Amino acid sequence: MKITAYISRIAAALAAIAMMASLSSCDSAIYDDEGDCDVIYRLRFRYDMNMKFADAFSHEVKSVHLYAFSPEGKLVWQTTESGERLAQEGYDIILNLEPGEYKLMAWCGLDNGESFTVPEIEIGDTRELLHCRMNRSTHPEDGAVSTEDLHPLFHGTLDVELPENLDGGEYVYTMPLTKDTNVFRIVLQHLSGEDIEAEDFTFKIEDNNGWLHHDNSLRDDENITYHAWSVYSGSAGVDTRTLLADNGQQTTDNGQQTTDNGQTRAITDVKVAVAELTVSRLMQRDWTVNSKPMLTIRKAEDGELVARIPVIDYALLVKGNYNRAMSDQEYLDRQDEYNMTFFLDENNRWLATTIIINSWRVVLNHTDL
Asked: How many alpha carbons lie under 13 Å from residue 197 in its C-beta half-sphere?
């Protein structure tokens, strides 16, 4: 009897232990409504593909269109989000997906389709359908044209493997983004310092880069002519005696500086003409089979050519020694603003010896790049 009672007590203890284990399991009904054992997959975004190498997602990205594809390339889930929440610190999207392998893809900055359009796709469609086409209009002389300041567009992809975890937990993934829009700011200035009016010139950039594949590569497209969406005149204070010696300068009672021989350093306002154009992604290509993107400046009155340059070649002129380890395409993707200053002679022709690009003064030995 004693042995039987002892065995009974052991069996009861084991049963109690088993019950406690079942109550603490994630499969227990007690925990079903509490979510303590849920597995959560979070996706964050990072836009540091810029010249600052700093994450600017919260400042620049205004909308997200996110897609998840199976290993076979079929759409299994999609979501969109926009508004102030994207600017909050630690912004993420919860991936409502089952454990498994997925290829995630995002087009960010589509907003309401003002600048770029992505086709609507349904569950089961392939990712090849997610091409992104820049909106354009038709011009009687230039054909397909873009005359607007394009909304900033971003693209990202990420392969993920979402694990199955019966104990619950959170998994965080980060998708890097590449910016696909670039602003060109063109400044014209007379070398003599005489006045210049922006309305006297036209500014255009030609390229066939208005259609992007799902992987952000260029798709075959018609030639696009980008027109300036902003043209205005301005002025800046400039020292007209730029070649004075560093030593022997004095200041007069009225604030003017003089040289050691008593000559006055005159400070005056110089007029400039400024044009701004926004283009789609700049990409290096095989230039033996593709036409180079060209910036063209003409006189508005008679169409006489002022300057015509291959913009990618000129943009890469100031890639710089610090960025020598960077590929040309990475530099084009990181640099999203290009400021170019051209100096004109008395006949409004470009003096094709000097150009300032992003504050770098480039002295050209020849103009045929």
From this structure: 5
Cβ count near 208 (within 10 Å): 18
Residue 338 class from Cβ within 10 Å (0-12 exposed, 13-18 middle, 19+ buried)? buried
Q: Pick from 46, 105, 58: which is nearest to 83 by CA?
A: 58
Distance CA 130, CA 121 (A): 8
359: left (phi over 0), alpha (psi -120 to 50) or beta: left
- How many helices (DSSP H) and strands (DSSP E) are in the chain? 4, 25
| Residue 317: CB atoms within 10 Å | 14
Which residues are paired to 174 by β-bridges? 44
Tokens standing for 329?
């395409």
Residue with tokens 């994630």: 26
- What tens digit of pLDDT does each residue of 94-122 get? 999 999 999 999 999 998 889 999 999 99
Distance CA 149, CA 115 (A): 8
Residue 241 tokens, joined: 């005696």
Helices (H), 196-343: 311-316, 328-334
Rg for the chain (alpha carbons), in Å? 31
Cα dihedral across residues 244, 247, 253, 255: positive or negative: positive
Q: Are 336 and 179 in contact (CB under 8 A)?
A: yes
**Measured distance CA(275)–CA(282) in Å, rounded:** 19
In sequence order, what are the beta bridge partners of 182? 279
User: Among 47, 116, 45, 107, which residue's Cα sits nearest to residue 79?
Assistant: 107
202-249 per-position pLDDT tens digit: 999 999 999 999 999 999 999 999 999 999 998 876 555 543 444 444
The count of other CB atoms within 10 Å of the CB of residue 185 is 16
